[in-house]
Amino acid sequence: IYSNCFEDCTLLSKIELPKSIVTIGEMAFRDCSSLKRIVLPEGLKTIGRYAFWNCGLGEVVLPNSLTIMPDNLFHGCSKLTSLTIPENITQIGSMIFGEYVDRIIDIYCKPTTPPAIYYSTNTSHSAFSTSFRIYVPRASYEAYTQYSDSEKGYFQQNWARYKSQIEPYDF
Questions:
Q1: N or C: fewer beta carbons within 10 Å in the chain?
Q2: β-strand 116-120 against 91-92: which pairing, if any?
Q3: Pairing of strands 116-120, 154-157
Q4: pTM: predicted TM-score of the whole model, two decimal places
Q5: Which stretches of the chain are DSSP H helices?
């Protein structure tokens, strides 16, 4: 799906993408404010930044075929209440929910190894709000609550920062 392909399709309320889709471009569904449901196919490899900016999505389950969640993926998705992060995710981009998210969102984070959470040195915004509930594999709970690391240019936020929000879960 090309970048900006469905931008401003305000009447689009649901879509099931075919298995042949392997890439969703940047801002592909930007401002699809009525988009409440999207079925992402297993086999989807790449999603561009801001792909679902200002969508009306309530619950999102990302396919296991993804390995990276790009920056600002769900920026402005004010109705999002639940996100399932698949087992194969190794990186979570900067500000995936945008800025100042103050509502409760349940995050089901399935990777057994904590994914790197990146944030830009130009912003102080966290990847996850303090109102989020984060569920991680029971066997990996300790790894998540003690994880801390950094890299040059972009810093990996440490999962230990969210220790009070992380709960063990049986997936």
A1: C
A2: parallel
A3: antiparallel
A4: 0.91
A5: 141-146
